[in-house]
Design brief:
The chain has a domain of 111 residues. It contains five helices and no strands. The radius of gyration is 26 Å and the shape is elongated.
Amino acid sequence: MDTIKLGSRANNPDMDWSQVRETVLMLELSMVQIDTALRDSRSSFEVLSSTFTAMANFLSSQQETLHSLPTTEEGEAMKAGVLETGSHVMSMMHEAIISFQFYDRMGQRLDHVCHSLHSLSQLVADRSKIYSPEEWMNLQDLIRSKYTTPEERDMFDAVVLGVPVEEAINKYVANLQEKAGGDVELF
């Protein structure tokens, strides 16, 4: 494999300077930034996730205990208030758990982006592959295989066929909103 030497020489170019090497270096730096952000946030995500699970279990246990208390006129009013508050908190926790699921999905997508960038940088760095249409098609197939929904694959296919990226994204969002009954919000 005829691989391009690593390390930037843009500040001191020589006869061996290459925009390809600079491109590979920038791709690798992007991968490192994404990977580092994902690693840093995973531990926080795990703590939050386990905390919310424990809180939900605690509230559920508390509600069961309240239901089993003896019934008195004064106690019923207090019990109803506590149960209502507990139900409200459970509802809020459910919304938070859904947000955690969104975060988890985002993390998976960013992980796929890192792998795709890595594969791209390997292709660009390899002089025996960079000019091979077959290698580029293999890369496209590899990247496409990472998409998990038909909407994502349709968006990828549209961009590969030459549809402008913004137009493909708008169609992707419209398809998701139609599928979800207009209930999709992308940040």
